[in-house]
Amino acid sequence: IPNSVVYLSQTFAECAALKTPPKISANVENMQICFGQSGITTMPDLRHCSKLTTLASTFFNCHNIVDASDFYIPESVTDCGSLFNGSQNIKTAPRIPSTVRKISNIFKNCPALEGTVYIDTLAPDGYSAALLYTKVSDVQGNIPDELKEAILATK
Predict the structure, then answer these.
(1) Rounded to an integer, what distance in angstroms lies between the CA atom of residue 94 and that of residue 28?
(2) CA 11 to mean position of chain CA atoms
């Protein structure tokens, strides 16, 4: 993807044959629904994407993703709403950095997700249904205990 590309909204959505994501431009700012309902099995490398702000629904209904524990969410990202919503086979989640302000529905409808999720954000713009229909047993991170309990209560 050329460095001139900054907007990847729905670029690879519904590409069932796509298994490996392409190299993402360092200048990309928005990846909303970028890989939604695609066949990707591995996560894209976003460590160099310092301008990226939106990952909303990026992996919506990506049923081939199982392990996202090493997926790096850049500190520039503020919106992770519905990031993995409906990704039914995801078992491990990435750490959510403190810069993220929206995590509503982030792991909603991810029934294979279990164990502990690490959330460092205070998410003032919402966390409703963040863990709805998951098997998550604990929330850890640099957030107040009452927020951990509230997020855990959304399942």
Answers:
(1) 20
(2) 17
Compute and round to an integer the Cα radius of gyration of the chain.
Answer: 14
Return d(Cα 38, Cα 18) in angstroms, integer: 6
Please report, as a single letter, which amino acid is at residue 69: S
* Predicted TM-score (pTM) of this structure: 0.94
Type of residue numbered 148: K
- Angstrom distance (rounded) from CA 46 to CA 54: 12
Q: pLDDT tens digits, residue range 59-93? A: 999 999 999 999 999 999 999 999 999 999 999 99
Question: d(Cα 147, Cα 154) in Å, to the nearest integer?
Answer: 11
Tokens of residue 154, six digits: 């959304």
Question: pLDDT tens, 88-114?
Answer: 999 999 999 999 999 999 999 999 999
Please state, in angstroms and rounded to a whole number, the distance separating the CA atoms of residues 66 and 149: 26
Tokens 């954000």 belong to residue: 121
**How far apart, in Å, are the Cα atoms of 153 and each of 49, 128, 131, 146?**
33, 10, 8, 10
Cα separation, 125 vs 153, whole angstroms: 17
Q: At 116, list the tokens.
A: 């502990």
Cβ atoms of 107 and 129 within 8 Å: the answer is no
